[in-house]
Design brief:
The structure holds two protein chains of two kinds. Chain A is of the alpha+beta class. Chain A has two helices and five strands. Chain A has helices at about 20-30, 65, and strands at about 10-15, 35-45, 50-55, 55-60, 70-75. A five-stranded antiparallel β-sheet of chain A has the order 4-3-2-1-5. Chain A starts with 10 loop residues before the first strand and ends with a strand. Chain B is α/β, with parallel strands linked by helices. In chain B, helix 3 links the parallel strand 5 (about 105-115) and strand 6. In chain B, helix 9 (about 230-240) packs across helix 10 (about 240-255). Classes of the chains: A alpha+beta, B alpha/beta.
Chain lengths: ~80, ~725
């Protein structure tokens, strides 16, 4: 399961990150690294881009980059 | 500290000014409250300039303390020292004293948002490597408390190895006095100890910097290894051999890119510190009322977006109109007063039609620009701007851009100049240039007078269904502009500016009430920049056009026979108008108009239209005035009489000049042509090259010309 598969409100732990995409590396610099817990805050009309929340921050990213984050879902959202 | 028993008069109140002896850099994440703190600390003692060679603005201010003073350099908001964007490179280079004209700071004031400690500590961790006296201002402390986020300041100072931390609220001013007191000693405090978050990198850098000699500081080695500074990375390869460097990197970073390895390593330390200083780390944002949360949902947010858009457009047009009319009236009155005072002469015409009209044509756009920027600054400060980018990303993707181009393109409906300046938020240079070149296509306010004139004169005021034909044509022209802009972006993004798909990565800040002082200072700054930079260009060009239209002077004797030949008795006003028209015909501008007439002949324009269009190249809004003069109704005549004259204008063979195909072609020409020196100057400034403004001008002029020609030729054929 990847970050792109989460539904709105889902909480998940980031397990493994594929760093081949430079956009993914930028997201890691913003703090999206292994072992943190994120929440899918918002999904735009049409399913893309996504808004992910962690440690008080919200970051928007496209599905294309979200697919590089393998996750484990912890709780389902609303 | 010695307690004074005398009557206390605040030192700032009696105006003792200390001389700034050191400079301190203010650095932190975007939206961390850095500029609010900067304004709080420096008040109005600040200047704005540019860092050499880049368009990043340099804000400098003086902080007056009780016993001393220092200069504060406000650096762009950044997340890391990676050097991935222009802002990041500048911030690093300034703090390391690598920028010419800016002294190396003697200390760092790091701004960390108490509600975003996670990313703030990451940047701080990198900054501690610089080994400069460092202090932390923990901002937004009140909104953190309001949201149940508590930060143990003592524990944080301990975790940071003794770096002083000052909790402040820039909004209420709470904690500022303590921070200022602390800042008195910023240059004399000990350099921070480097956190033991990445011992391998630390040791390698330490050893190498000793071995390589005095030219290599520890931080230089780190930047070379992390490949965040191309210069040092290259030199390290030369010194040690590429293979050795490759081995070193493999040992430190594995097979991940250095930045990814760095993030993995350093965020471990960040989380350890957070566990020590926060009771419970917030998992996700709790900030914002339920209403704000609800409006963040895609559909309500989209509706709200269009409502906000409507409000901004309304405000830009309706609020600005009275002010613009007043400025217009003032400049024409002033012009008349000058002529009345010193009589009709070349000098009075130069003052009235050149200087006053020239300055007026600049200032007239100031109300719109200020209103637009007021909205943009408020929307930016509240965090709404980032939200609209999120909403519109999908639409912009179809032309190869991202949501970050939305705001600049929206601003373009008022004026392309602020819109091009607003493209700075776009991190990728290719995307930024594509947006800059698309923006001037959108119908700006300066196109409206010409549209209004031509539509009122030549489009019948009838209804098609429930739509008015004139309104429909105007709407069509707006659509034409949008299509031109989007097509240009698509074209460029699939050819010259082809690059990787934009990532669209944006930190979305929570809703926050705007700070009045910050808004006022930013607005003042914008207005000043507009008047100074764009103003000089328009001003010079306005004087140039006046010179071309005024000289050479015609001999009165040449003119008299033409009047008598017409055989009618003319009143004085008609005589003046006819004289002005004849003067225009034989002026340099008129001569140029007749010389270039063949060029515009395929578009169905005579020399008069051609020279009005030529005069409009510096600023398209002057076209109505120039046409007015050329068509001998005087430049202060109302549109009605001008449109009658336009309808009556004929070729020497008696056929009408302003036929429907010619008018439609002229409208298309104005929709697509880049007739604005201020826009060109701004493109030059923002891209730092002449290549893009020249390209934009040639490209837009050609397609405007071609579009007008096709419509005229096809229309005349039927």
């Amino acid at each position: 399961m990847t970050l792109a598969d989460l539904a709105r409100g889902d909480m998940a732990k980031l397990d493994e990150i594929d760093t081949t995409d430079p956009g993914v590396v930028r997201l890691m610099v913003l703090g999206m690294v292994e072992d943190i817990i994120v929440r899918m805050e918002n999904i735009a009309i049409g399913g893309d881009p996504l808004e992910v929340g962690f440690f008080g921050s919200s970051i928007s990213l496209r599905k294309e980059q979200a697919r590089h984050f393998k996750v484990t879902r912890i709780t389902a959202g609303d | 500290m010695i307690e004074s028993t005398e009557v206390k008069i605040p030192v700032s109140g009696i105006g003792i000014r200390h001389k700034a002896r050191a400079s301190i850099a203010l650095i932190g994440n975007p939206n961390a409250g850095k500029s609010t703190l900067f304004n709080r600390l420096t008040g109005l003692r600040q200047t704005t300039g540019n860092f050499p060679g880049v368009t990043v603005e340099k804000h400098l201010g003086t902080v007056q303390l009780k016993h001393s003073a220092f200069n504060l350099i406000d650096l762009p908001g950044i997340y890391s020292l990676d050097g991935a964007s222009v802002d990041e490179r500048i911030a690093v280079d300034v703090t390391l004293g690598r920028v010419t004209g800016t002294d190396r700071p003697s200390g760092l004031l790091v701004v960390i948002d108490a509600t975003h400690i996670y990313q703030g500590l990451y940047l701080l961790e990198q900054l501690l490597e610089l080994q400069l006296p460092t202090m932390v201002a923990l901002t937004m402390i009140d909104s953190a408390t309001a949201n149940g986020i508590s930060v143990d300041i003592d524990a944080l100072q301990k975790a940071l190895g003794g770096v002083p931390v000052y909790p402040v609220s820039s909004i209420s001013g709470h904690g500022l006095d303590a921070l200022k007191e602390g800042l008195e000693n910023i240059t004399s405090i000990a350099c921070p100890s480097i956190p033991a978050s990445w011992p391998e990198l630390s040791e390698t850098a330490e050893t190498l910097s000793r071995e390589l000699g005095p030219d290599w500081q520890r931080i230089d080695v780190i930047q070379a290894l992390l490949q965040t500074h191309p210069g040092f990375a290259g030199r390290l390869g030369q010194r040690l051999g590429q293979d050795t460097v490759r081995l070193l990197r493999a040992r430190l970073f594995g097979d991940a890119p250095p930045a990814a390895a760095e993030a993995r390593q350093r965020y471990k330390w960040v989380r350890k510190v957070m566990a020590e200083v926060q009771e419970q780390a917030p998992l996700y944002s709790k900030i914002g009322a339920r209403l704000v949360r609800w409006t963040n949902r895609p559909w309500p947010a989209t509706l709200l977006f269009f409502a906000v858009l409507l409000l901004v457009f309304q405000a830009v047009f309706t609020w600005a109109t009275p002010m613009m009319d007043a400025i217009d009236k003032l400049s024409s009155e002033l012009g008349r007063a000058i002529v009345a005072q010193i009589g009709r002469s070349a000098f009075s015409s130069f003052l009235a039609d050149g200087v006053v009209a020239g300055v007026g044509s600049v200032i007239i756009f100031l109300p719109q620009i200020l209103i637009l920027f007021l909205f943009i600054i408020i929307l930016e400060d509240t965090g709404y701007l980032a939200r609209t980018s999120f909403l519109m990303d999908r639409v912009m993707r179809t032309v190869g851009l991202s949501g970050q181009s939305v705001i600049p393109m929206l601003s373009s409906f008022a004026c392309a100049v602020p819109s091009i300046m607003a493209t700075r938020v776009i991190p990728d240079r290719r995307d930024r240039i594509a947006t800059i070149l698309a923006a001037p296509f959108l119908t700006c306010s300066a196109r409206l007078p010409i549209y209004a004139l031509l539509i009122a004169a030549f489009v019948p005021n009838t209804s098609i269904g429930w739509m008015n034909l004139q309104g429909l044509v105007l709407f069509g022209l707006y659509i034409l502009g949008i299509m031109g802009g989007l097509a240009t972006a698509l074209l460029l993004k699939s050819s010259a500016l082809k690059g990787p798909k934009p990532h669209f990565m944006l930190a979305l800040p929570e809703f926050r009430a705007p700070n009045l002082q910050t808004v006022a200072i930013k607005l003042f700054d914008r207005g000043r920049i507009f008047l100074k930079r764009a103003g000089t260009v328009i001003f010079v060009v306005a004087i140039l056009v006046w010179t071309l239209a005024y000289f050479p002077r015609m001999d009165a004797a040449d003119f008299t026979p033409k009047i008598t030949a017409s055989g009618e008795a003319w009143n004085q006003a008609e005589l003046d108008h006819a004289r002005a028209a004849a003067q225009m015909e034989q002026s340099w501008l008129g001569r140029v108009g007749r010389t270039i007439e063949p060029v515009f002949r395929p578009l169905g324009w005579d020399w008069r239209v051609s020279s009005a269009v030529l005069a409009g190249f510096p600023a398209r809004e002057v076209v109505v005035a120039v046409m007015g003069t050329i068509y001998a109704v005087g430049s202060d005549a109302d549109d009605q009489s001008l449109s009658e004259k336009l309808r009556a204008a004929r070729w020497p063979d008696g056929s009408l000049i302003f036929t429907l195909p010619m008018v439609l072609g002229l409208l298309v020409f104005y929709a697509w042509c880049l007739q604005c020196a201020a826009t060109l100057a701004t493109i030059h400034r923002e891209t730092n090259s002449w290549r893009w403004p020249i390209f934009a001008w040639v490209y837009m002029t050609s397609i405007g010309y071609t579009g007008a020609m096709i419509i005229y030729q096809a229309g005349s054929f039927f």
